[in-house]
Design brief:
This protein has helices spanning about 1-10, 15-35, 35-40, 45-65, 70-95, 115-135, 140-160, 165-180, 185-210, 220-225, 235-255, 270-280, 305-340, 340-365, 385-405, 405-410, and strands at about 95-100, 100-110, 110-115, 135, 140. By secondary structure, it is mainly alpha-helical. The strands form 2 sheets. The chain has a 3-stranded antiparallel beta sheet. Strands 4-5 form a two-stranded antiparallel sheet. Helix 5 (about 70-95) packs across helix 6 (about 115-135), helix 12 (about 270-280) crosses helix 13 and helix 13 (about 305-340) runs antiparallel to helix 14. It is globular.
Length: about 425
């Protein structure tokens, strides 16, 4: 029996343990945080059955992916780039579904998917392949930098029009991959300087042209998202709407924390109730399923699920969840250090950074250390496309771990004459 299970769940055991605990936490906390969905649908078991089914399907995808030899991922790269690019263009041209003042989703054969999730994995695959193919004795060839930007910048621009935080996350991961892949520091330094100048210019323009009186604060559930018809806006109107939202978030984050008496629970509902959830948690929390603020947080099961985790599991639970992501990144680094070739090492680190940096963004937003970004907590937040694709990322990391060997293991292999 153990041998059969071992044949299915192959690869790094540490990654599997982290994956298992994150999935279990997800099922418990999403069940608790979905009270708003269950109340509106009058179906108290439906949302968690859907989420558990999504996770189960994601585990199947992870098992399938880990059995794909790492070299075949290279063959998938151009197809994934083409598919994600086409879907991003469709969304950018107004073919996506709208929610929360943004159009990030697209409906295909009755399924709602988020093209940016596919694009993130495709870009990481492409960057890993470019860096590995252009490695020299002293690091990556200087032309690798150019090829990476030619692929990354257009994708980030398409994503950033509707989801700036995801574009920034992806670019940060690519930058770190170039650093790990030994792209010349002079090129990275120039890029960092350009990014700082561009960011300062972009923030200035947002503060100038943005109109906070026109932001839409109402948050929609995924059920409402599916039923809502897309809003027809031209490109300029879409950019202006996003500028309004970005300006409101920047101004809110810059403002000093108000006293409890000054809080406007209608205007700042998400941040206010997230703070209440955290403050009322204590060391061990209120216990699973005992959250109070889940009934007031519109995105309790997604963007602000970490606040619910803290409320129910306490400071110890919050530390435990953060520790799981640290272990995930550590295991990815260990796997990368054992790889004989550059491509699997860079792929494992890229995917690990993608998951952990996104988790860091989500947790910082929940505790008030960053402005609201709309990033879900990987492998914990309720989701469809994002959950399944994150499981595929775990499968790819496990595939790399299967083929990774230490130099000592290679030296101990018998020579066959």
């Amino acid at each position: 029996m153990n041998k059969r299970i071992g044949k299915i769940f192959k690869g790094d055991r540490g990654i599997w343990m982290v994956f298992f605990f994150l999935c279990m936490i997800s099922i418990v906390e999403v069940f608790s945080a979905s009270s708003g969905l269950t109340y509106k649908s009058h179906n108290y078991i439906g949302p968690i059955v859907y989420h558990a089914g999504t996770i189960a399907f994601g585990v199947v995808i992870a098992v399938i992916t880990l059995n794909i030899p790492c070299r075949y991922f290279k063959l998938m790269t151009p197809f994934l780039l083409a598919i994600s690019g086409l879907l991003l263009l469709i969304v950018a041209l107004g073919g996506g579904k709208s929610a929360n003042d943004a159009s990030r989703w697209i409906s295909i054969m009755g399924f709602t998917i988020q093209p940016s999730e596919i694009a993130k994995g495709a870009i990481v695959l492409a960057v890993a392949q470019i860096l590995s193919a252009m490695q020299q004795e002293k690091g990556a060839d200087k032309n690798a930098f150019k090829w990476i930007l030619w692929i990354t910048v257009p994708a980030c621009l398409l994503i950033g029009a509707e989801n700036l935080s995801t574009a920034a996350l992806l670019f940060a991961v690519v930058f770190l991959m170039m650093f790990i892949g030994q792209v010349p520091l002079r090129q990275l330094g120039k890029l960092a300087a350009y990014i700082i100048v561009f960011a300062a210019f972009a923030v200035s323009m947002v503060l100038i042209v943005g109109d906070t009186s026109k932001t839409e604060d109402q948050k929609l559930t995924k059920t409402e998202l599916t039923n809502q018809p897309p809003k027809k806006k031209n490109a300029l109107e879409k950019v202006m709407h996003r500028a309004n939202t970005w300006k409101a978030r920047i101004l809110k984050f810059q403002q000093p924390d108000p006293t409890p008496q000054e809080y406007d629970l209608d205007k700042d509902a998400q941040v206010a109730h997230a703070n209440i959830a955290i403050v009322s948690s204590g060391i061990v929390g209120k216990g699973p399923g005992q959250s109070v603020e889940r009934d007031f947080l519109a995105q309790a099961f997604s963007d602000f699920i970490y606040a619910i985790v803290i409320e129910e599991l306490g400071i110890l639970g919050a530390i435990a969840v953060a520790f799981l992501y640290i272990v995930l990144l550590y295991r990815c680094a260990r796997i990368a250090s054992r790889c004989e070739n550059n491509f699997p090492a860079l792929l494992a680190m890229g995917l690990g950074l993608l998951l952990v940096i996104q988790a860091t963004f989500n947790m910082m937003v929940a505790v008030g250390l960053a402005p609201v970004t709309g990033q879900p907590l990987p492998l914990i937040s309720k989701g469809g496309t994002s959950t399944i694709i994150n499981c595929a990322y775990i499968g790819a990391i496990l595939s790399v771990s299967r083929s990774a060997k230490t130099k000592k293991e290679k030296e101990n292999e018998p020579n066959v004459a």
